[in-house]
Design a protein that fits this description.
The chain is built from nine helices and 21 strands. It has about 400 residues and is an alpha+beta fold. The chain is globular and about 50 Å long. The strands form five sheets. A seven-stranded mixed sheet has the order 5-6-7-12-8-11-20. Strands 13-14-15-21-18-19 form a six-stranded mixed sheet, with helices on one face. Strands 1-4-2-3 form a four-stranded mixed sheet. About 30% of the residues lie in helices and about 30% in strands. Bound molecules: 3-(2-carboxyethyl)benzoic acid. The site of 3-(2-carboxyethyl)benzoic acid has 12 residues, from strand 11 and strand 15.
Length: about 400
């Protein structure tokens, strides 16, 4: 599952940098011939199905011992520190490359679609590094790219020198290939995306790597003809250790989700320029309604009110403020959706901790509002503003529709 070494697409990307518009026209024609997918199971049924997306955090041992009938419904598996080795897995397997903290060692994030009628297909577009699996309504995909491999490919684009050039190009390639898959399979709506970048806060060539990523991501949205406000997916963007590949995975849907913003926060796509020349492209949350239920995706959420970080240096206060933001998003989601009712109790959480020594303080704050049975995975990751010590994301499901 490692990102392949320089392949046809990446060479094309280098060409595209030089002769962008002419190349794009030719590429569109070429793609009609070349975007054949390899299918490892039967095509999805077009009959109305009752897909309901389910998230579980399971150990790789438990995953390995599941019956074939369980596997039939698996869309994708995400390990944390590294991709789990699972013999005979039929779904894409990736990893965020972020170390686990506390008792979470060996856990994986498993995305499944419930329902005996659901039929999944695998895809690997020939000229793409994206691995994906999908049913009629939903698609899970992942892509990992080594910046080293991009650097080795040839001269950096003018104006983007050295290492920053590799990050920018890798981001553009990743998002372009993701958007191509979504077009090909007609799951046009990106609903949730996770972005893990090695050394997210490091400066290269006078710019923080997260800000370079934001510029490239915004460019990729624009180049694909996508809107840069109101329809951006729910997202997380975190730092992984030096030397990790850039790792991005995502969920997409055939039907559009409802995007949710937080009344306590400036929308990220409207952040002022002091947070970077190009604002981040994400919505604070979104709700996806399918026939069998709804899913709530809460983006990475931190101690930000308006657009400013608050509670500098105080991890407990930052955690409380983050919970207040998630609470505001739950209320907003319930208001927007009307009948589905989300509460803290129904959510599954991932908590990104900048300094491992802060784990206890964070756990203590979360113990009060959350039931002890609440699934929470703690990961060590750098958060995308240097002054943020903690970031929390959440997923909810509701059978009511
Ligand atoms: C924030 O609220 C914190 O760039 O995709 C959270 C979730 C954050 C997603 C992203 C960034 C992103 O601005 C950072």
């Amino acid at each position: 599952m490692d990102a392949r070494l320089p392949g046809p697409v990446s060479r094309q990307a280098a060409v595209q940098g030089l002769t962008r518009s002419r190349y794009r026209f030719r590429n569109r024609q070429a793609k009609l011939l070349s975007m054949t997918t390899t299918r490892t199971s039967t095509a999805p049924s077009t009959a109305a199905s009752t897909a309901a997306l389910q998230l579980d955090y399971l150990s790789s041992d438990r995953i390995a011992s599941q019956a074939p009938s369980w596997w039939r419904n698996v869309l994708g598996i995400v390990g944390f520190e590294k991709p789990p080795v699972i013999d005979g897995a039929r779904a894409p397997i990736t990893a965020s490359m972020t170390p686990t903290l506390g008792a979470n060692g060996g856990l994986c994030e498993v995305w499944r679609v419930a329902g005996p009628e659901v039929q999944l297909s695998n895809g690997a577009a020939r000229q793409s590094r994206v691995r994906y699996r999908y049913c009629r309504e939903l698609l899970f995909g992942s892509i990992r790219i080594e910046e080293r491999a991009i650097e080795a490919e040839g001269p950096p684009r003018s104006g983007a020198a050295g290492h920053s050039g590799a990050l920018v190009r890798a981001t553009e390639i990743a998002y372009r290939e993701i958007f191509e898959v979504l077009k090909e399979t007609e799951h046009r709506h990106l609903i949730r995306i996770w972005n893990y970048l090695p050394e997210i806060n490091r400066e290269t060539d006078g710019d923080e790597r997260y800000r370079l990523f934001n510029s490239a991501r915004q460019l990729a949205f624009r180049n694909s003809g996508r809107a840069t406000v109101n329809t951006a997916p729910a997202a997380s963007a975190l730092g992984s250790p030096a030397g990790s590949p850039i790792s991005i995975y995502f969920l997409a849907a055939r039907q559009p989700p409802k995007m949710i913003e937080n009344p306590r926060q400036t929308s990220a796509y409207h952040y002022p320029p002091k947070f970077g020349r190009h604002s981040p492209m994400f919505s604070r949350a979104c709700v996806l309604s399918e026939s069998a239920g709804t899913n709530l995706f809460v983006s990475g959420t931190a101690s930000i009110v308006g657009h400013e970080t608050i509670h500098h240096g105080d991890v407990a206060a930052q955690t409380r403020e983050t919970l207040a933001n998630i609470h505001a998003l739950l209320e907003e989601a319930n208001r927007v959706v009307g009948r589905a009712r989300y509460s803290m109790d129904g959510l599954k959480f991932k908590v990104y901790v900048r300094r491992p020594a802060d784990l206890c303080a964070i756990e203590e704050v979360l113990a009060r509002p959350l039931r002890s049975s609440t699934p929470i995975v703690y990961l060590q990751a750098d958060v995308c503003r240097e002054d943020l010590l903690v970031e929390i994301e959440a997923t909810g499901e509701s059978a009511e529709c």
